[in-house]
């Protein structure tokens, strides 16, 4: 609209149309690149930037009944919806249900990961 108004007022300033188009293109590209990056991360099933897998693993290992953790996979199915799957080895005498609840609550509280699949091993 600005370019059209300028050209209407001064028809010899046709270059204003090109300048306005380039400025608008830069603005659109700037806002689209971030969204495109997020979409590609979801499609590639990469670990979300806001979750540090090493810290997640360390936090689970610090629980008293947990002996080991392996096959840890963290990915997003959409921006902000994170999933986790892993195997957790616990002590033979540990209450598996209690450990499972503790791990799920920890992941929800610390990382907002609500979709969790955990295989308990002894």
TrEMBL record:
Transmembrane in keyword set: yes
Gene Ontology cellular component annotations, sorted alphabetically: plasma membrane
A Pfam family hit: ZT_dimer
Domain of life where this protein originates: Eukaryota
MF (Gene Ontology): zinc ion transmembrane transporter activity
Keyword set, alphabetical order: Ion transport, Membrane, Transmembrane, Transmembrane helix, Transport, Zinc, Zinc transport
Domain Cation efflux protein cytoplasmic as annotated: residue spans: 48-121
Keyword Cell inner membrane applies: no
Residues spanning the membrane: 15-36
InterPro entries reported for this sequence: Cation_efflux, Cation_efflux_CTD, Cation_efflux_CTD_sf, CDF/SLC30A
Family: Belongs to the cation diffusion facilitator (CDF) transporter (TC 2.A.4) family. SLC30A subfamily.
NCBIfam families: CDF
Listed name of the protein: Cation efflux protein cytoplasmic domain-containing protein
Lineage: Eukaryota, Viridiplantae, Streptophyta, Embryophyta, Tracheophyta
